[in-house]
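Late entry, evening session. Most of the bench is empty. Finally got around to the prediction I had been postponing all week. Sequence below, unchanged from the version circulated by S.P.
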Amino acid sequence: MAEIEDTHFETGDSGASATYPMQCSALRKNGFVMLKARPCKIVEMSTSKTGKHGHAKVHMVGIDIFSGKKYEDICPSTHNMDVPHVKREDYQLTDISDDGYLCLMGDNGDLREDLKVPDGDLGQQLKAEYDTGKELLCTVLKSCGEECVIAIKTNTALDK
């Protein structure tokens, strides 16, 4: 009788994937999806009827969560698309360095100084409110190995 051999699978990746597959028809507006290899928030979706020979197609418009750039894609509704793992975290702003880096403190008290002041209106608002002495919380979005501050709010937990 032949011995049954255990099959052993090896993966080429050391950690968790930055994305996971999801059927196109299951994606929703305001959800996330990878468009042109960039993590995007879906802002528009429309489904066309099935053609004579084909599948219903889903037309998606997404905004890059880091650059704000607009991307579009059309995909058969039965196909899978990659969805990025997106993590949101709030940090307390403790300082802004002279070279434009934020000093942020997490809930556990750990400090990080690896994120720059965001570009545009958000960065100007952040600097202005910090300069007036407001206690600010910065919302940091992390996905696909990238991170950036996407929102700020006044830290009401520290109001006297």
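Two things to note before I forget:
The two ends are 79 Å apart (CA to CA).
The chain is about 10% helix and 50% strand.
Will write this up properly tomorrow.
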